Amino acid sequence: MATRLKKISKEPLALDRPRIDFLILADRAEAINGKLYLMGGGWSEWRWPDFNLPISFGIAAGVLVPWNATNEEHTLSVFIEHEDGTRIEPQVTAKLNVGRPPSAVRGQSFLTVIAVNSSWKLSGEGMYRAVAVLGEEERRHASFRAVQIAAQPPTPPT
Questions:
Q1: pLDDT digits (tens, 9 = 90+) for 110-119
Q2: pLDDT, tens only, 107-156
Q3: Could you give the angle at the alpha carbon of 35 between the alpha carbons of 32 and 38, nearest 5°?
Q4: Peptide bond into 90 cis (omega under 30)
């Protein structure tokens, strides 16, 4: 039986614009030496007993910078917004400037990773999204649902 190969798109590649490759929610995220470390990553529901208290978690992003956009400054903003579009402070902004290492191959793209850990005061139960905006056009989000749970009473020592 013959296998057919999928035809490759003839759309031109965006060789001069960086793009957000991924955005992941995590209990904690760290970017160290070009690698991303996540603890409790990839969730889509956050359970919280008291929305009067801020919620702390991490957001990890990967930005793919093409050859023609290296050695230039790019701005990445990360924030949380409620399903109604209301932004929740803080908004974190980072300036990225990805260089070409000596071993780079002409035309190569470079992935740079960013980790943001902060506390946000959500307004209550509902749908939210972590949003990353790169420059003025590129935007990616990761949605999550916040659910209130009953607080667990402390367990007395035995």
A1: 999 999 999 9
A2: 999 999 999 999 999 999 999 999 999 998 899 999 999 999 987 777 77
A3: 85
A4: yes
Which amino acid is residue 136, in one-letter code?
E
Residue 18 makes CB contacts below 8 A (sequence gap 6+) with: 63, 64, 65, 66, 69, 74, 96, 98, 134, 135, 138
The secondary structure element, H or E, covering residue 73 is: none
Predicted TM-score (pTM) of this structure: 0.84
Q: Are strands 138-148 and 126-134 parallel, antiparallel or unpaired?
A: antiparallel
CB count in 10 Å sphere of residue 15: 11
Q: Where are the domains of the chain?
A: 19-148
Find out whether 46 and 57 touch, Cβ atoms under 8 Å. Answer: yes
Helix (H) or strand (E) holding 6: none
Which tokens go with 27?
A: 């209990």
What top-level class would CATH report for the domain 19-148?
A: mainly beta
What average pLDDT score do residues 36-53 get? 95
DSSP 109: -
Residues 6+ positions from 74 with CB-CB distance below 8 Å: 18, 63, 65, 95, 96, 97, 98, 134, 135
